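chorismate mutase structure dump, as promised
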Amino acid sequence: MDIAEWRLKIDELDRQIVALISERAAAAQQIGRLKRTTSLPVYEPNRERLVFENVRAFNPGPLPDIELVHIYERIIDVMRALQRNELASQKNGAEEPREEREK
Ligand SMILES: C=C(O[C@@H]1C=C(C(=O)O)C=C[C@H]1O)C(=O)O
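structure tokens r here:
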């Protein structure tokens, strides 16, 4: 393949990655809601260690494990921020959409 074809492949892969990250974020959001009702902390270091182990175990290459873990550190930062922002907006009395409340 030439460069233009490889770039088309990257564009398509990026669309798939965005869809998967969004799905992961929606799952983290649901966990955040369950944490709110059970008063559990947003930051769960033991769970994060398991996530890194899982990622390392399924790393097919060519990225070194450490680089993959760096990417995941950033992803998890964003997931925690999503949970915290939602908690903050609820504490500030922001109204949650009905369909979200009823999930
Ligand atoms: C999603 C969760 O909340 C946080 C985010 C995590 C993640 O994005 O994988 C893991 C642990 C928590 O620090 C969770 O507790 O599972």
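The chain has a mean pLDDT of 91.
lmk if u need the other ones
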